[in-house]
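Supplementary Methods, section 5.1.

A reviewer requested that the exact input to the structure prediction be made available. We therefore reproduce it here, unchanged from the version used in the analyses.
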Amino acid sequence: MRDVASSTADDHRPPGSHSHAQQVLFTRQTKLFLRGLGTVRRQIWSSFGEVFGEVFGEVFAGFEESFGVAEFCGIAMAAVRDAALKISMTALQRNVIPDVLLRWGVRKLLEGRLREITRPTLEAQMQELISFVQSLKQMPIAVNTEDANAQHYEVPTEFYQLVLGKRLKYSSAYFPQKNSSLDEAEEAMFALYAERAQLKDGQSVLDVGCGWGSLSMYIAEKYPNSKVTGVSNSETQKAFITEECSKRGLSNVTIVTCDINVFNIENTFDRILSIEMFEHMKNYEKLLKKISSWLKPDGLLFVHIFVHKSIPYHFEDQGEDDWMSRNFFTGGTMPSNGLLLYFQDDVSIVNQWFVNGTHYALTSEAWLVKMDAQIKVIRPIFAKAYGEGEVTKWVANWRTFFIAVAEMFAYRNGEEWGVGHYLFKKK
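The structure derived from this sequence is encoded token-by-token as follows.
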């Protein structure tokens, strides 16, 4: 170890030298960083401290009863875990957890999810998949549709206008370059849809789960002789699309509001497209049977869904750590990349593509950047939507949602979770 007396000539350069200036700058930056870190730490622990006593008091209530040592330890460990989750959720809703810790926590939850769904052998994994497929066939087409509306689609449109791209595409965009803008990435994904769905001018097109009409209006503009029908489960979305079509002079778009469980239509179509709607569905057998009845004999169905590379699972609210299921995806499904191929009674696959998850990660990161830039404008919108006392909680929830989506699709360089594109023909 070098002591003070063993300093070299380099340690005694004059104050005006380049090395000395760098050292002074580094020292100042380090002090500022440590000061900021200390402030963050105090904020977090202050928030934790406010709820710590309350939560642990609730968790350990009734523990005065007599237990054996082993039994007590087991209960205590479970209680500590539950208490830690409650404390974390409270800190999250108070918006005091730094993004770096939040992202680390999301990655840990993803690791836990993979451990939970992975079986020790391929044989066991395949049996699990077949059981999952069979269970879906016993379910309704969709569940918890009202929850999905409340969580996403009845939120004021002004919020989405502030955070999404120019076309209000509330699904993965496609980034030709990492530095492409969100608007450019939206256009690039629409162009990919048009190519893969084999869209042509003059076709009749059904957009199932049309959101804010981004794809319906894109098709109507690009193919002015086509007739586009959009289906949404939200009156808010229908009102917005109708007004936008009027502003843009688009007379070839019709919007229908209906729950997909009961939706039916007498018309048949040349092309049917569905963008990130199947994730809200359960019984793909019944759904695809319905959709096939709306296709013309030579019609094609194009589907865009987010997927795990090999293992499907449900979004289920089973506890404090099922945050995504509880707040944003109640009743949802994470399909696997090959899941839809098990439901070909009424349609057959023509082509299939996988879009690396980094495109979705970049999309969600762009949403987060735009939200942070407009936070002063967003807070009054949330006050109107959720109530004055819930604003900070929902600012944190939406930021966490965008961070969670970004981290999930960036995981393992976008090769674990991504986007599946499928082209089906009518049987």
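The CA atoms of residues 153 and 234 lie 6 Å apart. These observations are discussed further in the main text.
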